[in-house]
Design goal:
The chain is an alpha/beta fold. It has 12 helices and 9 strands. The strands form 2 sheets. A 6-stranded parallel beta sheet has the order 3-2-1-4-5-6. Strands 7-8-9 form a 3-stranded mixed beta sheet, with helices on one face. The protein is elongated, with a radius of gyration of 21 Å.
């Protein structure tokens, strides 16, 4: 039986791109996976691990007849990638991405793909991990995880459905948001938490007694700072790409910290308990969903 996707081309065969390939392969949904990347050693490893069938040499030849192209690189690299693939996209080739921001990626796609922008269906798998690289790839990374598609007005419904089909073959649960909705939501629940985690560890790292402090840090600190082990390059790009929404969320959080600071300064036990109780209630409800 013919696989759903005869040929998939992936730019960036780290955790996101590699896991996409492995998941499609496990589902029997892909015939051939071709990979491109900046690091030859990563590409060689991806081929050795069975993520790739081939390492791509000629972008034009590979994307011309591909069913699907996935851009799974840091968002700052996507403008260049759109420019590289634009002249060579076959009329039936669809393009999607795994970027954590959408408005900037959409702007780059409109600029570089121009008349072919209808072939680009923006996406974002919500299934990261602290480890990166081809060796971190997992066939079940997307199982039961959310993937957001942010379709453009130009996208035919059949094209959106085809990209949805790819992610569902990986075991993902697919939702749709506009690019603007996406960036606002993830500034609050993903980008800000990463910023705070990095900031806390950075603060402690600059203290003269950091070794003493870290020697007593336990599970609460470990849980809160887990995401500070993520890729600095990737989160630099995400923070700048979603700067406006992230600045709004950061100011909101600063206001919240100011409320806590004032309650402490006023010795206001009732206010502290009010804040903690609401937070506990919402957190408990969320984890039970």
């Amino acid at each position: 039986m013919q696989p759903t996707f005869r040929k998939v081309v992936i730019f960036g065969v780290g955790l996101i791109g590699g896991s996409f390939a492995l998941a499609l392969r496990k589902a029997g949904a892909v015939g051939e996976v071709v990979g491109f990347g900046r690091s030859q050693s990563t590409l060689d490893e991806a081929k050795r691990l069975g993520i790739l069938d081939r390492i791509g040499n000629d972008v034009a030849a590979e994307v011309r007849d591909a069913d699907l192209v996935l851009l799974a690189t840091p968002v700052a690299q996507m403008d260049e990638l759109f420019a590289r693939i634009a002249p060579h996209l076959g009329s039936q080739t669809l393009v999607t991405d795994g970027g954590s921001t959408k408005c900037d990626v959409v702007a780059a796609a409109r600029s570089k793909l121009a008349g072919k922008v209808a072939q680009f269906i923006p996406g974002h798998p919500i299934a990261g991990a602290e480890k990166s690289g081809a060796a971190a790839s997992m066939a079940d990374l997307y199982q039961g995880k959310k993937v957001v598609l942010a379709p453009l007005p130009e996208n035919p419904q059949a094209s959106v459905a085809r990209v949805r089909q790819a992610w569902e073959a990986c075991g993902a649960v697919v939702s749709e948001l506009t690019p603007e909705e996406h960036d606002g939501v993830f500034a609050a629940v993903s980008h800000l938490p990463h910023l705070l985690s990095f900031a806390l560890v950075h603060d402690l790292a600059q203290r003269d007694n950091k070794d003493l402090l870290l020697s007593f840090a336990a599970s609460g600190f470990r849980d809160f700072t887990r995401i500070a082990a993520s890729s600095p390059e990737m989160w630099r790009d995400i923070s700048l790409a979603n700067r406006d929404a992230l600045l709004r969320e950061l100011q909101q959080y600063i206001n919240e910290l100011s409320s806590l600071q004032q309650a402490l300064a006023d010795n206001d036990a009732a206010k502290l308990e009010e804040i903690f109780s609401l937070a506990r209630e919402v957190r408990s409800t969320w984890t039970q969903q």
